[in-house]
Amino acid sequence: MPYLRVGRKRGQVFTNAGSFTGVVALDGPSGTGKSTVSRRLATRLGGRYLDTGAMYRAVTLAVLNAGVPLENPDAIIAVAEKAVLDISTDPEQPGIRLDGADVSTDIRTGEVTGAVSAVSAVPAVRAILVDAQRAIIGDGGIVVEGRDIGSVVWPQASPKVYLTASAGARAARRAGELGAESTTAVAAVAADIQRRDTLDSTRAASPAVRPDGSVELDTTELTIDQVVDRLVDMTRNSEIPT
Hints:
four-stranded antiparallel sheet, alpha/beta, Rossmann fold, 46% helix, globular
């Protein structure tokens, strides 16, 4: 599995062979289909894939494992500085390791989801991970998903796309991913999504916003294949140098 080490020691970046050399930025809130369509788009283009959210989740897991209070930014920063992440850039085999251990499943727990916004709001944590993300992007040939890719991490990306969906669709999709599709479960997921949206959009460091110059794509009524097809067309027809 092709991994790039992020932390005190960096490893080699292994890329997929392909003609795509640009950088596509896909931003948007939870439940809009970012992860699925980003991976499929990268595969279609013959490029790499980067899930920046997984990086913030891995650091959050490290913070929780260390028993650090979320109200203590200095302690959070200390954990983030020591954490070593290995993240795959293969869209067919995404994954992430924390200090050598595969945490691809662990970072998706409710506990991590509930804490990730607080950890990612710490400016020094964002600085550490944004630097790492830029190093991974390197010379391009990659599809990058997150909440501040087109606005902060790589503003020169082309195209820059902001995915949206109705609140109901987002909650239903997220609940489905969690295997909890009852009316009560969907309502609880909707409340959590709203909480995270508020925290992410109002944080002082790199707030989640629609990037300037981005194209908004509403995925509410579109299938995954339809979204990917549109993104492929946008990428191939982009006139902005990458």
